[in-house]
Design goal:
- It is a single chain.
- The chain is an alpha/beta fold.
- It has a single domain, classed as Aldolase class I (TIM Barrel), CATH 3.20.20.70.
- It is built from eleven helices and eight strands.
- It starts with a strand and ends with a helix.
- The chain binds erythose-4-phosphate.
- Erythose-4-phosphate binds next to helix 7.
- Its main location: cytoplasm.
- This is Probable transaldolase.
Amino acid sequence: MKFFIDTANLEQIKEAQDMGILDGVTTNPSLMAKEGITGTDNIMKHYVNICNLVDGDVSAEVISTDYEGMVREGEALAELHEQIVVKLPMIKDGVKACKYFYDKGIKTNMTLVFSAGQALLAAKAGATYVSPFIGRLDDISTDGLNLIAEIRMIYDNYGFETEILAASVRHTMHVIDCAKLGADVMTGPLSSITGLLNHPLTDIGLEKFLADYKKGN
Ligand code: E4P
């Protein structure tokens, strides 16, 4: 299972990268705005900074909602760095643009996916990643994890190679449940990754080992 971090915050990206367990980064316009990164030039520079911090794929989202605009923007983003994955919205023109980038050998991430049917379309269009938003489904009392299970079944039925990128992960149990269901990737905040470290028996056990070592020395 690949671990992506869902942020545009360079310190948090560096912290996850330094742990040696980071496989990539996802961003979106809201995450950029949260870090105060505004204006096309600054946003483009920030993507390059992120790519220079990590080894893996970095999803960069287009703002256009029409096919021509998505192609233009996506090509500019892909030219920024070899690690860039063009992130496209799950709308008709997004699917068409996804197929365009597939034919050109440019990686894509179909975002804002909330149903199995949308995930099927993403796979048909040759998306590298499909991003079902599990947290936002949970927010409206719909089972986000069930969507991961449905997509896994459908993709396995036909051998689709599109990777299931469980997005809108909010906490450690989302990560563990997505791993059980066979999601290929998860993207979440730093806390959903570092939270996996926590167990009181680890802390108690380590404390005792260190105390016993001191007794004998
Ligand atoms: C995915 O790529 C999105 O950036 C993200 O996971 C959305 O998460 P949120 O629902 O917590 O905003």
